[in-house]
């Protein structure tokens, strides 16, 4: 994978991009760089890197890839708020594309990052949507409720 294009979407080779973070030759200078390196680590099932870059206050005990059935394809950064070299907090909104049963899907998420002792850490994230790629996503009050009731959101969990 070292000569191949990095999955994070930077346009660089893996060795000249996220590979430098995964082998601890460099540390990500921004929240976006950490997000990109974590996506690539997740796609490569690199649990050690994911754990090392996860804030201790929200980090799980372990990461189990044994039931992972998707093949992560690419990352698109939609928005970055703060998270620069001089910041201590940052937000990155992204879309992660993956294959599931031969069909491309996309997950949209907003992730929060924190900087401690000069290093960026993933704090937490909120999934905005998951759908097949190129499918219209209705996220309004007329969308089906995510609780699985079969009712529209406005008549279910959105009522009141």
Question: Could you explain the architecture of this structure?
Answer:
By secondary structure, the chain is an alpha+beta fold. Helices cover 15% and strands 32% of the residues. The chain has 3 helices and 4 strands; from the N terminus they run αααββββ. The chain has helices at residues 18-22, 31-43, 47-52; strands spanning 71-82, 89-100, 103-116, 119-132. Strands 1-2-3-4 form a 4-stranded antiparallel β-sheet, with helices on one face.
What is the molecular shape?
globular
Q: Hey, roughly how much beta strand do the residues contain? A: 25-35%
The percent range for helix content is 10-25%
The mean pLDDT is: 88
The CA-CA distance between the termini, in Å, is 52 Å
The tally of strands reads 4
Number of helices: 3
Strand order within the widest beta sheet: 1-2-3-4
Order of helices and strands: HHHEEEE
Unreliable stretches, pLDDT < 50, 5 or more residues?
Answer: none
Structural class: alpha+beta
Please state the CA-atom Rg, rounded to the nearest Å: 17 Å
Q: Can you summarize the main beta sheet?
A: 4 strands, antiparallel
Oligomer: single chain
Features:
four-stranded antiparallel sheet; alpha+beta; 4 strands; 3 helices; single chain; 160 residues
Detail the topology: elements first, then pairings.
Elements: H1 18-22, H2 31-43, H3 47-52, E1 71-82, E2 89-100, E3 103-116, E4 119-132
Antiparallel strand pairs: 1-2, 2-3, 3-4
